[in-house]
Write a structure and sequence with these properties.
Structural class: alpha/beta
Bound molecules: 6-O-phosphono-beta-D-glucopyranose
Oligomer: single chain
Strand order of the largest sheet: 16-15-14-13-7-12-11-8-17
Distance between the termini: 42 Å
CATH superfamily of the largest domain: Dihydrodipicolinate Reductase, domain 2
Number of helices: 14
Radius of gyration: 24 Å
Length: 477
């Protein structure tokens, strides 16, 4: 395993992402001796000194790492520096003494600063490995652009200074263990290969339901909305894993080619029939997990007339041989009845005459709250007569006591090893924007449908089912 020594530079080091997610992951990797950091340099606009930066990180670790160990933290601190500055090449020059060779630049910055930071680093020469350095990498997190056009511009701005094999785009869902298991489970079990097509599959539903509201992120969220925040990236990536062709080997280029190919095959959503393919919702006051919560437009910072959707549901078809005629449904929302996430694949029903109508099987990859794979099937109910009942064969994914890695830990190791397999490539990002762009534009002119907090979203989402299918309940038994 190539765990090369390198300098790890965090731009935006005083922000929330660093404190809540990135640094806890760095600490845990260090504590487990998975990765011995060589130099970690926090860099941000705040005119702090190292002591203040360390105190800030420590508070975050105490809050977000349950088994925080002060001794390990004391050792990790020896590797940490702090520098303040802006995103210009002139200021970045101060980083030089800390970057003798390999380096990773993690842009924990607001997305509108990605292009500027990438350029500043490039102009300062940090994009070129020299001397004994083997790599210089840059890491950014979604959103990658705001719509199709801005994603193109961002892609070009980064490409002016960094090559595609230096750019790691984090979609943290792809670092989740159960998400990676979708690929393994699909491509390791021959039984599935023979049924994974339109001859056997009736529909695919990908759901990510959250009880959470804005969590103080209103500035970002009110601009973004559910379609940009969840569907364009996380759920679209889950779709690629469920729908892509089998790769011949676990190779980053081959995986990306197959993912991009299936995204390219998604039939454009017709702007003049938007209502049949996309539904936007916005929560109104209601009870979530027993607590009354305000409606979206009563949340702190939100304009009472805001049209931002907090729920988005999409339907689309994939125009290729494998998926001809199979509808894919993606939905995600805030302040819903429960925290529930799954990729659910429904098999076509068997001829009705034998045991009645509506008996079809589901294969469900459950991600939240429990990680498991369910096979929902039918069997004879014990007793007199040929009555049927549903049975669920469940394979729990993790056993108690099994080591648990956060998505960020997994992804950081991949960045260190230079493995881009689970980092979306530019063409995947662009294709995903192509799919959602007509919806974003169409929704600008309309108000989202209201739904009470604590429910399953707006009832208008049933429109997408065209009276023939139905959404799975949010808390299936
Ligand atoms: C983030 C979104 O990317 O993913 C959040 O911005 C969302 O709005 C989060 O809550 C969900 O991811 P997880 O891993 O916390 O369930």
């Amino acid at each position: 395993m190539d765990r090369a020594q390198c300098s790890f530079v965090i731009l935006g080091a005083t922000g929330d992402l660093t404190r809540r997610l990135l640094f806890p992951a760095i600490y845990r990797l260090f504590a487990r001796q998975e990765w011995t950091a060589d130099r970690i340099v926090g860099y941000a606009a705040e005119n702090w000194d190292r002591t203040r930066f360390l105190a800030h990180l420590e508070a975050g670790l105490k809050a977000f790492v349950p088994d925080f160990d002060p001794d390990k933290w004391a050792k990790l601190q020896e590797h940490i520096q702090y520098l303040s500055g802006d995103l210009t090449a002139a200021k970045f020059a101060a980083l030089k003494p800390y970057i003798p060779e390999n380096a990773i630049f993690y842009l924990a910055l607001p997305p509108q600063l990605f292009a500027e930071a990438a350029q500043g680093l490039g102009k300062a020469g940090f994009n070129q490995p020299h001397g004994s350095a083997r790599f210089r990498r840059i890491v950014i997190e979604k959103p990658f652009g705001w719509d199709f056009d801005s994603a193109q511009h961002l892609g070009e701005a980064l490409a002016n200074w960094w090559t595609e094999d230096q750019i790691f785009r984090i979609d943290h869902f792809l670092g989740k263990d159960t998400v990676q298991n979708v690929l393994v489970f699909r491509f390791i079990n021959r039984l599935l290969a023979s049924i994974w097509d339109s001859q056997h599959i009736a529909q695919v539903q990908i759901t990510y339901a959250e009880t959470l509201g804005l969590e103080g992120r209103w500035r970002y969220y009110d601009q973004a909305g559910a379609l940009r925040d969840m569907l364009q990236n996380h759920l679209m990536q889950l779709f690629t894993l469920a729908a892509m062709e089998p790769p011949s080997e676990w190779d980053a280029d081959i995986l990306h080619n197959h993912k991009a190919e299936v995204l390219r095959a998604v039939r454009p959503i017709p702007p003049d029939q938007l209502a049949d393919f996309a539904v936007a919702g916005q929560y109104t006051p209601g009870q979530v997990l027993g607590q009354m919560v305000p409606g979206y437009t009563q949340e702190e910072g939100i304009n009472p007339g805001s049209r931002t959707e907090t729920y988005a549901a999409l339907k689309f078809y994939v125009d290729n041989w494998r998926w001809h005629g199979v509808p894919f449904f993606l939905r995600s929302g805030k302040r819903l009845a429960c925290d529930y996430a799954e990729i659910a694949v429904q098999l076509k029903s068997v001829p009705e005459k034998l045991f009645g109508a509506g008996l079809s099987d589901w294969l469900v990859f459950r991600m939240k709250p429990h990680e498991a794979i369910d096979l929902v099937m039918w069997a004879k109910r014990p007793g007199i007569g040929l009555n049927t009942e549903q049975i669920i064969l469940t394979a729990p994914y993790k056993k108690v006591g099994e080591e648990d890695y956060s998505a960020y830990e997994q992804l950081l190791i991949d960045v260190l090893e230079g493995d881009q397999s689970v980092f979306p490539r530019l063409d995947e990002v662009q294709e995903a924007w192509r799919i959602v762009d007509p919806v974003l534009k169409g929704w600008q002119a309309q108000k989202p449908e209201p739904y009470a907090a604590g429910t399953s979203g707006p009832k208008e989402q049933d429109r997408l089912m065209a009276g023939t299918l139905s959404w799975r309940p949010l808390e299936p038994s």
